[in-house]
Design a protein that fits this description.
GO terms for molecular function: nucleoside triphosphate diphosphatase activity. The chain is α/β, with parallel strands linked by helices and about 200 residues long. It contains six helices and seven strands, in the order βαβαββαββαβαα. Helix 3 crosses helix 4.
Length: about 200
Amino acid sequence: MTSLILASASPRRLALLQQLGYAPEVLPVAVDETPRAGEAPDALARRLAHSKALAAAAIHPQDTILAADTVVALGSHLFGKPRDADDAARMYRALGGVWHQVHTAIALSHRGQITLRLCDSAVRLRVLSTAEMRAYWETGEPADKAGAYAIQGFGAVFVSAVQGSYSGVVGLPLFETAECLAACGLPPPCLSGHA
């Protein structure tokens, strides 16, 4: 019997899977996340999700592996995790008042095959004041988030609009994830018995 393994240390991805009734084993894997020269943001998300799934499948080849990667971008410019408060402020100034893209790719390894899906969403942050930038940074929330904000946390107060998948912006698009898992014989447990 195969089991579901989440190849991610993200508590947000785990919580989203649990929301659907899954209880995956968590197996974080380390891959080099350095973008390649000229690599498009969506291509980066796909490549990293694929690499994470491969790395976890090498450890647990008989299990179903779910991996994901989220990339925040404004055009071709990437916004990774901020180095410090100044770097976060630079991101807020660039992203404030304009639409930016959030690309989340999922990779599912099942019986030696890897399925890739990409979810593209657009997010608009309002313009933040310097005091707001400082106060938000001091909550600790932005430090490990691509784009230096968390739509599911305190950062929600700065998000004026979202087009696309909210869960995809959080880090795991549930529609695409549920479809892929169902195709592997693992439909969402929250729906079992109600089909």
